[in-house]
Amino acid sequence: MAEIDFVRDVKPVLEFNCVSCHREDKAKGKLRLDEKAFAFKSKDVINPGDPDESSLYWMTTLPPDDDEIMPPIENEDKEYPLLKSEQEILKQWIKEGAKWPDGVKLSPHKRLPKKITFEEHVQPIIEQNCVSCHRKDKAKGKLRLDTFEHAFASETNLVPGAPLESDFWVLSSLPPDDEDVMPPEGNDPLSPEDLYMLRRWIDEGAQWPENITLEPKKKSLTVLGMMPKELYQKLGFKPGAVNDGFVAYTQKIPTSDLSFDMLPIKGGTFVMGSPANDPNRSKEEHLAHKVQVSDIWMGKYELTWDEYELWMLNLDKDNREYKKLETTEADELSDGVTKPTAPYTDMTFGMGKSGYPAICMTQLSAKMYSMWLSARTGKFYRLPTEAEWEYACKAGTDTAYSFGNDKSELSKHSWHLGNSRFKYQKVGQKPANPWGLHDMHGNVWEWVLDQYAPPADKAPTKLMVNPLVAPNTLYPRLVKGGSWDDGSARHRSAARMGSNLAWKQQDPQLPQSVWYHTDAIFVGFRLVRPREIPSLEEIEKFWPSEEDIKAIPSR
What we know:
Layout: H1 6-17, E1 22-23, E2 26-27, H2 36-39, H3 55-58, H4 84-95, H5 118-129, E3 134-135, E4 138-139, H6 148-151, H7 167-172, H8 192-203, H9 228-234, E5 249-252, E6 259-265, E7 268-272, E8 289-293, E9 296-299, H10 305-312, H11 315-323, H12 329-335, H13 363-377, H14 386-394, H15 410-413, E10 445-451, E11 464-465, E12 477-480, E13 496-498, E14 523-524, E15 528-530, H16 546-550
């Protein structure tokens, strides 16, 4: 075997098999494998030079019925041990000294299917990324990938069982700035999932039915419309660019008479969660720990139906057609973002519409709206992280609520179960918090970007900077702030709640809608705009991810 490269060879093995259970926010057995310092804390886990004394390796080689095998096999239909090739990568890496470059952090990825088939898993990757330039009538570099015969015509293009000897895979795994990388510069690089899928396929023999001819397919799935990375590039966002003029502003939504207010929230360090000795804290609240967040703008109010239906019901396009406006580039970009299917019932459930908070959307819908609004306005909007939301809610305070500790004062500041008349209310009627934000306590729960993760038994001791628990399962995902249907405990600044499938209990559709939570008449959202724009590689943390997209059924 060639010398092991950590980023190319080892990182994917750990990310797809280990990090989901051994990371900062979920360290089973108190073991973390997402950062070098934690992975090498014990020589029992990684003993450089001696794989047989490294549990990271030898526990993967145990019999499948052994209770200590890693990854654990809880369901034989879905769970499976490491492949021999993956075991060999770990073994040789440790044998060669277990080199792990400084600064390389690992992110969890969902395990690949137990059995990979060409038609279901490999063919779409090749058709969407390769065949447009390597087919019968356009064979760049005299290479064709549209048929078995041509793909295997070269002895080095595809070598079954040997991805590191296969030019097809090696060139795809090069760094994005390498002039030989495939797909070439100007195209989206293969995702980590696609890359690892191809490696697994070649490792397992590169089976390719001889009777199949591949056709070039557009990478943008018609069900989604424009992909997040594609929109990011078309809008001309530049990673790290800082938006100057950090002041409050009113954002107009072109083609409508609507606008919304955004307030600057200067970043800083705060205590997230609540003290362990607080007698009123919920077991779902994080233990108090220090967190640092960056500058953002945040919506002054919760998003209203007036704004949301421009996207949800495609009223934006209807307005343009009614006014007979000429089509602009922004129109084309915003029209390229997928809209929800029509709701089967009135999603306000008779509680009011104009000026009231939009409700009943899934987290996917909220993220897709932020993507649409970005296309519509040219500014980068997204949901807040849990940390950003709580920082803005506390607004410099260290009390249970932004107005103090006395829950008897709640009615002056919040719509809750005791004063809401059993429905949500128009936004902005209660006084703002110290930073000018309305309804951070109550009215409706608000979506944030994070997966719901149970609080750790011990509070983190080091300062956490812009933390985000990126979702890797559909449920539970996180909402903050309490609602018109909750008591005082749920309105605390540190309060948090996870979503669940019961929020779709009344949905009569099969499969149930990815857009609507028919029973979550207490959930809405508000938007933020970061002062510093993220990188292209990070965009799926903030707009719909590949896992979100896969959940959208074809129409």
